[in-house]
Amino acid sequence: MPKLTIDGRESEVPEGTGVIEAARRLGIEVPHYCYHPGLSIAGQCRLCMVEIGNNPRPQIACNTQVVEGMVVRTETPKVLETRQAIMEFHLINHPLDCPVCDQAGECWLQIYYMKHGLYEPRMVDEKVHKPKAVPLGPHVILDAERCILCSRCVRFCDEITGTGELGIFQRGDHSEIGLFPGRELANPYSGNVVDICPVGALTDRDFRFAVRVWYLETAKSICPGCSRGCNIAVHSNLRRPHHDGGRRVARLKPRYHAEVNRWWICDAGRYGYKFVDDPSRVRFPTRGRGDAAAEVGWDEIVPLIAGQLRRYQPGEIGVLASPQMANEDLFLLRRLVDHLGLAHVDFRVPPSRPGDEDRILIKADKNPNRRGAELIGLGPRDGGLDARGMLRAARERRIKCLWVFHHDLLASAWPEGEIREALESLECLLFQGSNGNGVRLLAHYVLPSAAWVEREGTFTNFEGRVQRFWKAVEPLGAARADWEIVARIGEALGLSFMPDTGEDCFKALAATVPAFAGLSYRELRDTGRLVWDCAGRGPA
Amino acid sequence: MSVAGAGTAELTPEQLAEVRRLQGLYPDKRAALLPVLQLAQDACGYISLETEAYVARLFDLSPAHVHEVVTFYTLFFREPKGRHVISVCHNLTCHLLGAEDAIAHLKARLGVEVGGTTKDGRVTLLSVECLCACEMAPMMQVDDRYEGPLTPETIDRILEGLQ
After folding, report:
1. Is 0.90 exceeded by the ipTM?
2. Is the four-CA dihedral A326, A403, A376, A491 of positive or negative sign?
3. Which sign, positive or negative, has the C-alpha torsion A404, A407, A411, A412?
4. For residues A360-372, average pLDDT
5. d(CA B160, nearest CA chain A) in Å
6. Buried b (16+ CB within 10 A) or exposed e, A474-483
7. Helix (H) or strand (E) holding A59
8. Mean pLDDT estimate for chain A
9. Tens digits of residue pLDDT in A218-260
10. Which of A163, A167, A170 sits opposite B65 (nearest CB)?
11. Helix, strand, coil: what percent of chain B each, to 5?
């Protein structure tokens, strides 16, 4: 491994490492636009110039590989002067429309101008005009005048999705990013080009003019859109509630994870958060079916539900958990199921259509925590019925009380009429979920769940990686995390274990379920941990 | 490329053999993109979007990358051009010696603006940068030959020869 010196500090990095990456490992950020660690090297923006050894002229750090004994200097007068000149060059035709640009506040032209530019503008000529506000596809909009032609978006479409929609057309100062005429930027990962665009050329149609980025709060999270468990950041707008129609979650952004999603997320996940601020949210507990439904407080509904669960024989009760629920929820539910001695327990409901899957990130299973439900053991116990069996038994009035978590059973792969008949045959249908659906309309009792961004917890992804998500916003109305609701009902039924936090739940889970042994929130940190399955096999 | 389907690109078996020969000359066949585009333009008169997409398939490239090349170079015509192409140099030497007058005369005689093609499809008029023939300034390129120094009289004589 070659040894080199960067700004007087020694470093040893693998053969083939670029100088820019070697510097980054020492915590030295060489300014750049076109370089992206997930893409090929373009050497296009010329901003990452550094001085190397006694070479008379600065060289680009991205496309120069380290060699033994190399001496790199990133802050010499010559480097600073070069950077300033390149900033001036990049900004020659820039429209300077920051006041109406969504990128303002997270724009690398702004950041680097303040850090490395600060020159007296000399541009007196008419700027070159190019297409503005051009929708490229369902999610991305282009302002070609703001573009600095770094080609990150072009390389993303060539190298990551392999779809090749974008190119740089014309030449000289008339060069512009664009689509082959007649094509659309509609690949399932198109939103990522907005993330990697260092300037305001590509912005997000969903986020367009919604809220200024400096009003956003950030919480680390996990995408609940499929079983991949992509690491994301939830950006919420709490300081300007009058903006964007009161939408609290403003956008989701990918968060780097070397083994799960690298820098990317799919569009389905990125824009799949709308249910959080949707009018379909369940905000308060209700009792009574259909038109007779009346809002009640938790103090009223918990004893009612406990009473219902006590009223029936264990064989007359079914519990349909959901792989949308966090490990904490599922664990506490299993505690309660064990406490009541219930056998008819399941979490598997086939979707109406098979999910799409690809070789990049998207998994066919659209649930974030099927693996967790399997490991925690929410399947039928001691000859109990599975989900379909429970619904058949409900039609035959052998199951009289069913507690459904989240599932929209009427929109599953099963015949709707048959399922509706089963649900209508129940004496007591409990629905617990964050958003209303067909089951909610038929339920005798409705319990409002907090959405995943309104609470903390963990999901176990398809490969058995347990990952934490953090709370970004407060629950709507009286909604509570699923585990809290289960805990309160459990308490009313004499269950002694009453956790105060998600972390307490997870501790008890780690102490009980072998796959999770030894884990804790602290242990999971930001990157999560792979768990062992029940059979004691290695990481799945 | 069938002339009948101007715009609908399809090379003849002989032309395709030439494409393969050109691609075989380089370690990366993409290097043959320029000569193949020239071949396509010669066959069809210009490079349509359909031709770009067709050529992209011959190279396993996305059409966007062929479009990059075609829009970069001014010698690719993206619309049908006239039977003859006149390119008048308007760079320094020619400019000082009367290129603007020559262009004005051509515009008046042909009845087109620079970049335009006469209605009868006879001539396309372009203005270009230096053609490396300052000794004959002001000058222009007519199809494959250089003409200059230009006067209204020499221009009229040259135009008469173009059918």
Report:
1. no
2. positive
3. negative
4. 97
5. 35
6. ebbebbbbbb
7. strand A59-60
8. 96
9. 999 999 999 999 999 999 999 998 888 889 999 999 999 999 9
10. A167
11. 50, 10, 40
Nearest chain B residue to A185 by CA: give it.
Answer: B64
In chain B, residues under CATH classification 3.40.30.10 are 84-161
Same domain, A327 and A370: yes
Q: Are A433 and A270 in contact (CB under 8 A)?
A: no
- For B85-99, write each residue's pLDDT tens digit: 999 999 999 999 999
- Residue ending a domain, among A91, A126, A153, is A91
**pLDDT value at A69 more than 80:** yes
Task: Give the Cα separation of B30 and B61 in Å (integer).
Answer: 8
Determine contact, residues A534/A514, Cβ cutoff 8 Å.
Answer: yes
CATH 3.40.50.1970 for the B84-161 domain, yes or no? no
Which residues on chain B are in Cβ contact (under 8 Å) with A183?
63-64
Which of A427, A380, A418 is CA-nearest to residue A400? A427
Tens digit of pLDDT for each residue in A340-349?
Answer: 999 999 999 9
Q: What is the CATH number of domain B2-72?
A: 1.10.10
Residues A418 and A374 in one domain: yes
The chain A residue lying nearest B74, using CA atoms, is A170
Distance, CA of A75 to CA of A86 (rounded, Å): 15
| pLDDT for the residue numbered A540 | 41
Contact indicator for B100, B127 with CB cutoff of 8 Å: no
CA–CA gap between residue B44 and residue B47 (Å, rounded)? 7
Tell me which of A154, A160, A180 to substitute to probe the interface with B (most B C-beta atoms closer than 10 Å).
A180
Tell me the per-residue pLDDT of A295-339, one tens digit each, with 9 for 90 and over.
999 999 999 999 999 999 999 999 999 999 999 999 999 999 999
Tell me, what's the pLDDT at A376?
Answer: 96
Stretch A34-40: mean pLDDT, rounded? 98
What does each C-alpha distance from A484 to A53, A182, A479, A501 come to in angstroms? 62, 52, 10, 8
- At B5 the pLDDT is 44
Between the alpha carbon of residue A127 and those of residues A57, A86, A92, A362, B71, the distances in Å are: 30, 17, 7, 43, 21
DSSP conformation class of B98: T
The secondary structure of residue A92, as a DSSP letter, is T
Peptide bond into B138 cis (omega under 30): yes
**Cβ-based neighbour number of residue B84 at 10 Å:** 19
| DSSP 8-class letter at A451 | P
Q: Which of residues 39-58 of B touch A (CB under 8 A)?
A: 49, 52-53
Chain A CA closest to residue B48: A181
Neighbours of A14 (CB within 10 A): 10
- Residues 6+ away with beta carbon under 8 Å from B101: B138, B152
Q: CATH number of the domain that A121 lies in?
A: 3.30.70.20
Q: How far apart are CA A47 and CA A50, in angstroms?
A: 9
Mean pLDDT score, A452-466: 97
Q: Which of B52, B61, B64 sits opposite A165 (nearest CB)?
A: B64
Boundaries of domain holding A166: 98-204
Does the beta carbon of B8 lie under 8 angstroms from any beta carbon of chain A? no
CB atoms within 10 A of CB A295: 15
Q: What is the CATH number of the domain that holds A306?
A: 3.40.50.740
**Residue A167 structure tokens:** 């190119």
Q: Averaged over A39-64, what is the pLDDT?
A: 97
**DSSP three-state, residue B85:** strand
Q: Which tokens belong to A322?
A: 């959901």
How close are the terminal C-alpha atoms of chain A, in Å? 33
Can you tell me which residue has the tokens 């303040």? A114
Q: Is cis: bond before A475, omega within 30 of 0?
A: no
